[in-house]
Amino acid sequence: MEKVNALGRRKSAIARVFVDSGKGNITINGKELDKYFSDDSLLYIVRQPLTETNTLGNFDIQVNLTGGGIKGQAEALRLAIARALCKIDAEAYRSTLKKAGFLTRDSREVERKKPGQPGARRRFQFSKR
Description:
The protein is of the alpha+beta class. It is built from four helices and five strands, in the order ββββααβαα. It has one domain (4-100): 2-Layer Sandwich (Ribosomal Protein S5, domain 2), CATH 3.30.230.10.
């Protein structure tokens, strides 16, 4: 199997993934997965596409992660892994990943701050007199 690459985005986080056959090692920016994401819920999010398709120990994954916070990075990584699995074998994995909702990019972004007010939607207190 040749190396397959894919891209995942969430908020301002970008995950570039390189998937190769191996023993299930996931390396993020030169660190192990458990060292990079210390929270169990984030580890669960990252491993969701692999557990859903029963391929947890089949692929070695190298990741370049930039931007955003840890939650956005974990969700960007989930999308990138799901897209890479679809490139590897679309007919085997695509239907399960699509049904679980891992192939849809979450397009919600932070709304910009407007001039003359303290936040995006927040207004200064109104005083009639």
